[in-house]
Design brief:
Distance between the termini: 30 Å
Shape: globular
Largest sheet: 6 strands, mixed
Structural class: alpha/beta
Order of helices and strands: EHHEEEEEEHEEEHHHEEEHEHHEE
Number of domains: 2
Bound molecules: zinc ion
Strand order of the largest sheet: 1-2-3-4-8-10
Helix content: 25-40%
Radius of gyration: 24 Å
Length: 319
Amino acid sequence: MIIKPLEKPLTISKLETLLRRIDKNHPKRPQIEQDLAKRLAGYKGEQSMEYHLSFLDERKYYILHALRLQSSSNYCFQMDVLILTSTYFLIIEIKNIIGQVTFENHFAQFIRTLNGIEEGFYNPLDQVKKQNLRLYSFIESQKIKRPPIKSLVCFTNPQTIIRSDSRVKDSQSVLHAHNIFSKLEDFEHQTDTSIFTENELLKISRKLLKKHCEEDINILHRYGIRPEEIIKGVACPSCSYIPMNRKSGSWLCKVCNFKSKDGHISTLEDYRLLFGTNITHLELKEFLGLDSDSTTSKIIYSLGLKHCGSKYRRIYKLK
Ligand SMILES: [Zn+2]
């Protein structure tokens, strides 16, 4: 049963928005593009894992995608996939990497070789070990019975070649995503005593869902970009040109002549991703590039935004 489906991560939407709204030659652009590409590759890997897991028996496996929990010491840890069963819990770390990867024992290194170039990455076996410990302490803090917690590192690109030093102890925890079924069958044969009933598993799932806190970073702060560097104006839904002009109650694109009634909605969504949910009358007027207070008020009214504060310091909440 899918308890928490996979959704597009908020940070990816924020990075995409940021790239749309900074200058083509902004010095931070290459770094942001690189970070976005990494996150998109990770998300693509998670999507292909989601596909493999969709074939599992719904009554046996309770699946949570991209669960991010806050530990008692306020440290957040994210698991790409957490699967709850009546006999054990399983953490899956997903890797979408092209080329050849090698797990090396002596220095516990994880090396990727692509086109003859070697590159070191954070060892995913270490990563799952830490997640395992954090999940244990989280479970204890929630007064949940302590099940065995297993962990796997799954490579979702079938072309990735996995190599391992024969002395790497946990190499049996590393596999290609399409082999997940036989791995779960092995686990089933190894464990037999049920720890949780179906009802208990549902309760634990709900508890974990409630404790999920999505990563919500201040993207301008992260890249040291000042608010005035953000390009203001309504973006054309057809050709992405900024700004569209307001003409007789509609938005008009001077480049492709596209006409839109509600072009401001996606633009305010951009505002929310970059600056947060709070917005004043003046900020909204400036961001949409309006020159009239009454048009601004009309748009605010049409959106039915909730607000707080008195008339002159009123703050509206973007949905
Ligand atoms: Zn256009």
